[in-house]
Amino acid sequence: MVNILRQSDVTILDFGVEYENLDESNLGNVVQQIVEIAKHASPPLVVIDMARVRSIGPFFIQFLIRVWKLIKKRGGQLVIAGLDESCLAVLKRSKIESLWQRYPTREEAIASFKQDLP
């Protein structure tokens, strides 16, 4: 299950241990839930916490771009926390690693939004 958390004005998507490998087979059951969050989070400030994720596939990359575009369209921001080196390598091979700010921890990702708030 993806844990949906709120801290301050930030929505956090926390991928549990069952999402160690993010691919089509195990993401399918949460796609719609996450899309709804991207459409309705208020304010549209979202952290994707990937601290327990060890591999990502093409389906996840497409999905991440879709969610990011939905949030961006609403004037929001999406950042990634806890990205594993192997997952970062996949994003680099896809030439999309620079689309999102990355932070070592969830706490640092949340703090980055606080710096931007009035």
TrEMBL record:
Domain STAS: 1-113
PROSITE patterns according to UniProt: STAS
Name of the protein: STAS domain-containing protein
